[in-house]
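User: Here's a structure from my thesis project, written as structure tokens. My advisor, Dr. K., wants to see whether a designed sequence matches the one we expressed. Can you design one independently, without my sequence as a hint?
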């Protein structure tokens, strides 16, 4: 009923071609450049289910990452519309695409959205990672991370600059029992080099997380 009312108040129009009916129409969904092979989040070479190669994993690193597609074409247009045009209803369709393609190989207890700074969330009105996590629905959502300092936008920075930019930018909120000895999965919209996700994983692992995976809608700059 709610979905029906929202469609009347806020009719869905494809963010890529303009066709009415969905935010990403079936034709444009077929044009998404999906990841054809899962890769290790660190070296980006093939790895079954996107698990991290043992030789690539830092001491407090990610254990694996699922990425839906490359950050271009309709997928990029959808993410830009969600983040910068206030269309947070897109999170529902993006989550559906993730679930349709998700290999279900990661065993974890909670979905953990990557947090925005207070200033950026106040400006945007929502955290797109949190919206995606709630729409995924197949695991409880735990907001157990917080940003403790503002960072520059990552898209204009080189790899080493990105690492430095997010270093010590995250900390645990007051939910330590949800971290210790639990398996967690970070959720974010875009990973370029993965620096933000790697930093978040480090915080969670150091706090006692059993394992940390990640789900990301797109990867690339």
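Assistant: Designed independently from the structure alone:
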């Amino acid at each position: 009923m709610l979905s029906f009312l929202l469609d009347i108040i806020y009719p869905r129009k494809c963010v890529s071609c303009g066709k009415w009916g969905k935010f990403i129409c079936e034709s444009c969904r077929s044009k998404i450049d999906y990841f054809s092979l899962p890769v290790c989040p660190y070296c980006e070479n093939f790895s079954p289910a996107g698990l991290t190669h043992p030789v690539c994993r830092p001491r407090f690193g990610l254990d694996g990452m699922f990425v839906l597609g490359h950050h271009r074409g309709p997928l990029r247009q959808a993410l830009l519309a969600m983040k910068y045009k206030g269309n947070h209803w897109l999170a529902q369709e993006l989550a559906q695409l993730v679930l349709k393609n998700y290999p279900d190989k990661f065993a974890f207890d909670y979905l953990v959205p990557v947090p925005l700074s207070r200033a950026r969330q106040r400006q945007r009105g929502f955290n797109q990672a949190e919206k995606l996590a709630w729409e995924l629905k197949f695991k409880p959502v735990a907001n157990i991370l917080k940003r403790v300092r503002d960072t520059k936008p990552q898209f204009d920075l080189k790899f080493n600059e990105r690492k430095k930019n997010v270093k010590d930018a995250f900390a645990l909120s007051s939910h330590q029992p949800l971290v210790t000895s639990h398996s967690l999965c970070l959720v974010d919209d875009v990973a370029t080099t993965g620096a933000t996700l790697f930093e978040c994983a480090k915080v969670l692992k150091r706090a006692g997380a059993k394992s940390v995976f990640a789900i990301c809608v797109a990867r690339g700059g």
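When you compare it with your expressed construct, this may help: Residues 66 and 102 are 7 Å apart (CA to CA).
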